Amino acid sequence: MQITFFSDSLDDLFDEKRRQLIDYVARLPESHFEHIDQEQFSNLTVAKFALPEMPAFATGEIQRDEPRFRQGTDAVVMTVYIPFQGESSHFRYYHHSRPVPCPVFECKDGMLLKSYTLGKHELHLLDERVQQDVERIQQFVQLAREMVPRFNTMLHGLAGERFKHRVYEIGENRKALATIAKSRFTVRKRNDGAEQVLVPVKRKPIALSKALEPDALQDYVLGMIEYNDILSTITSMAMVMERTPSVFATMNEEPLRTILLVALNGIYEGQATGETFNGHGKTDILIRRGDRNVFIAECLMWKGAAYLRNKLNDQLLQYAMWRDSKVALIVFSRGGEFTHVVERMKETVRTHQQFVRDLEWKHESGARYVFRRHDDPQRFFVLSAMAFDVPDDG
Predict the structure, then answer these.
(1) Which helix (H) or strand (E) holds 311?
(2) CA distance 140 to 33
(3) What is the pLDDT, as a whole number, of residue 330?
């Protein structure tokens, strides 16, 4: 791996960390400030955003390889190995000034490598050349190492300032709410779609109808209207997750699935029992009638196309065993590049060997397909794939 020293400004990194901290504190829910004091808050916040110690350069004995002579020339190549401690990629940071051109090393087996080409009559200068480079680099590395602890101390102060600002702002907001509560006007209900995830006064029934054609393997089917309504509700719930990232930031597939499961059962009720949706394994949501699945949803965190393909083959498509099954793939994305994730998800599903054709479906970050059953290629089911951006809280 090639390491280019001093290519990025430490000041730019400091500015970005400050912005991240300020934005993080601004997005925390009010409840976060109720049972914590300023010092505790500052310590926890700094632990999240503090920079690690910068690496140390030339921390031990410098070694060299045997000389390599270039045939037909006077040139001799000498490769030296310089030990270091810490994360090598952080050598790219400089503070205020840097040498030009920036030194370039190879990183291998915990050492930094650099090759020097000298004439045979110059070999006695190798030690001097290496020492000059080491001293020049050490000067800039040491400055960065000294600046990071100072910056982390400054972050502690900044976290305390933002804590006081939020506590004051929350107090003023509550005073304002107390004043407006005396108004004779009522609060207008929201209609942006998120209201669907609030538990209704009367839960929606999900009707499972008899299949049009008798089939020993299939007694009941989920109608397309009900199927679309469920997916619309899941989409609205994902919007809530996007708006409150601090609540969902540390959750992986299983707790996110559980939240969907609990909320869906708060909105819908079945004909036979109060609990329409059932958990199966760690990441599946099912509607079952008797011993048959009529709705299947697989939840997963995006970890690349191969991971998604394995989930499809090993779980979701294995459960789609009966005619007229309605299937959903719910992909949570975290870490940016959401547009790329959506496109890769669609491409991975569309190129699956059980894919038959696309279906028209209006969804901002999803697509719908007809798939054939793996155990009976003459029978088909509907698969809707949806991706949702669940940001971390950093």
Answers:
(1) helix 305-311
(2) 41
(3) 92
